[in-house]
Amino acid sequence: MCGRFACSLNPEQIVERLHKDNYCREDIQVDCQDFRPSYNVAPIHQIVTLYENNNQKSLKTMEWGYVPSWIKKLPINRPINARQETLEQTKGFYVSSKDTHRCVIVAEGFYEWKKPGNGTKKPYYIKRKDGQLMMFAGLYDINELTDKSYTCAIVTTEASKEFSSIHTRMPVILNQDQVNTWIDGSIPWSSRVIDLMKSFEGELES
C-alpha cells in the first residue's frame, strides 16, 4: 500500500537529480505547470511522472487516481495503487495501459503506518538509504472525464523482508537500469517487464 509520499522538489530540481543519479542521460521535456511540491502528497493531487512518448522522455503532472480510457463514467473510488498480482492477469482494469502507458512516479520517500498492537498507528517515513530518488513503477491512462485527462496509479508488490515488519506491501521501486525498460512503450507487456515488479532489494531507512 502506498497512500502518501513526499516530493518537495520542483521540476527543475527533479530533472537535475534524474541526470545526476543516472536515471536519464538525454534531454527531458517538462510539462508540470500544475505541480506543487509537498512533503505530504495525497490521492487526487497532481504528481510528477516520468514517461516516454515518441522516444522523448518527459516529466508530466498527472492526477493520482487512475481512470482507464475505456470507462464512460467517473468512478467514485479511483485506485491509487495497482497490485502486481492484478497486472499479471491477462485481462482486467489496467489492460489498456500495460503495453504502452507505463510511467514512473517521482518521490523522495513514502509514508506507511504500522499498528503496534494497542489500537494506534505509528507513522514511518521510508526512503532509500543511498539518498537517491524513489522511482515508483506506475501506469497511466488518458480520459477526458477528468479535469487534466492524465491519471495514474502506483504499482505495489509484496513487501521485502526488511520492510515486512512495517507493512505487507510496498511500492515497486525501480533502479537506474530498470526505469528505461519500464517506460519504453516499444517493449510489450512480457516477462521482461513483469520481472521488474518485485520487492526492492536495496537498503531502506525509516
From TrEMBL:
One of its Pfam families is SRAP
The answer to whether UniProt assigns keyword Disulfide bond to this entry is no
Q: Which InterPro entries match?
A: SRAP, SRAP-like
Q: Which GO terms describe its molecular function?
A: lyase activity; peptidase activity; single-stranded DNA binding
Gene3D superfamilies (alphabetical): SOS response associated peptidase-like
Q: Which UniProt keywords apply?
A: Covalent protein-DNA linkage, DNA damage, DNA-binding, Hydrolase, Lyase, Protease
GO BP terms in the entry = protein-DNA covalent cross-linking repair; proteolysis
Family, similarity comment? Belongs to the SOS response-associated peptidase family.
Protein name per UniProt = Abasic site processing protein
Q: Which organism is it from?
A: Rhizopus azygosporus
